[in-house]
């Protein structure tokens, strides 16, 4: 237990020997240290998870995610620790808030950044379904575009084909109608266009001959349609249009599994939109509240320090800081006074050194002469 306590005290950046004098403050700084530690741990997990998506599919995805997560977590941990240490509780609340304001702004930005990967994991099932739908729509749009381009390219052939089909459909309806009239004529059914006399007479014979010719012509039209469709099908096959098909469930699952961070992030942004274009407010607010929760959690170490009052440990450290500052300043004055006291002695030594130098130079000149 002492090891854990000492570790969290270190996370809080306290002076252990000083804190041990005030047992009533032990739990407070234990909690502050734990908050700083778990914020860094949480940032490491979020950062690593985000990078895992970036390198998804790579053999080293786990390694890169672990390395970046560790670096990111340590950076956040160190920054939180420094900010908490730098807040001077001897100053007014306003000045303390100004000290912490840059960290709070940064915490908001970091909270938004690290909340996104975890939101992607929380809404993973919904995102997968959205991606499946999006990919199917894109695939169908691609196929439609290719078919439209192909039809424009062979517009003359398609015009002929549609003409043959229209003529064949119209002729088929006409033949059926005439065949019914022929039956009425043969069986003696009285209508505006039949005689009502039962039997296979000259009119019925001419009508049947005409229908036989029409059916032969209809068969030739159908033969032309089939030939034209076969030609267009072979051209589609040659140009690779038949290779582009709607993804199967297995292929679609495979594509969704390797979807990148950008696609997942876009899907999460559109998750609150229903197929009819209306907005699902419950999903929209859920994403916002989760982001706010992470932002608050990221700001928590600073808030904890700001909310805590000035305690015995703060007073003692402020006192030690004042003493050390005064001691450093006093050392400067002492050194100055010592130099002043040694001025006469240093002057005497300097005169002696220069005298010796002049005597040496004079002696050398005498020898030259």
From TrEMBL:
Q: Which domain of life is it from?
A: Bacteria
What InterPro entries is this protein classified in?
DUF4407 (IPR025519)
- Keyword hit for Metal-binding: no
Keyword tags = Coiled coil, Membrane, Transmembrane, Transmembrane helix
Query: Pfam families annotated for this entry?
Result: DUF4407 (PF14362)
**Keyword Transmembrane helix applies:** yes
List compositional bias (Basic and acidic residues) regions by residue number: 349-363
Q: Where is this region: Disordered?
A: 349-369
Q: Which residues form a coiled coil?
A: 211-238
Listed transmembrane segments: 29-55, 61-79, 100-118, 285-304
Can you say what this protein is called?
DUF4407 domain-containing protein
